[in-house]
Amino acid sequence: QVQLVESGGGLVQAGGSLRLSCTATESLFGFNTMGWYRQAPGKQRELVATIFRFGSSKYADSVKGRFTISRDYAKNTMSLQMNTLKPEDTAVYYCNGHITDGGSDYWGQGTQVTVSS
């Protein structure tokens, strides 16, 4: 079974940047869509960014213009570049891979992002 492993979280001051990575144990071509979700304490998990198999992407309004999602098929890695971070971006970030046929979802273990004011 494919596994997703995240890295790159940490503590950063407001206005700073972080880059999250999600590396799969198998080819990313198997996923129809991939995305990043986040969950802050006491809140529901929310979708932050999605990238589709052929490269198009979409973002939550709260991160548009600040975050960029990308994926490198050669490295089996999806990334989230986060710029101009705000304290409200503080959350555990999860990567997700979705396969439409059969409706399967795969999740990473989560990585903590903390933005100090």
Largest sheet: 7 strands, mixed
Q: Helical residue percent?
A: under 10%
Output the radius of gyration.
14 Å
What overall geometry do the principal axes of the alpha carbons give? Answer: globular
pLDDT < 50 runs, ≥5 residues: none
CA-CA gap between termini: 40 Å
Secondary-structure element order, as H and E? EEEEEEEEEEE
Number of helices: 0
Strand content: over 45%
Give a written overview of the molecule:
With 117 residues, the chain is mainly β. Helix content is 0%, strand content 54%. The chain contains no helices and 11 strands. Strand 7 and strand 8 (77-82) form a beta hairpin. The N and C termini lie far apart (40 Å).
Question: Layout of helices and strands, plus pairs?
Answer:
Elements: E1 4-7, E2 10-13, E3 18-24, E4 33-39, E5 46-52, E6 57-59, E7 67-72, E8 77-82, E9 91-99, E10 104-107, E11 111-116
Parallel strand pairs: 2-11
Antiparallel strand pairs: 1-3, 3-8, 4-5, 4-9, 5-6, 7-8, 9-10, 9-11
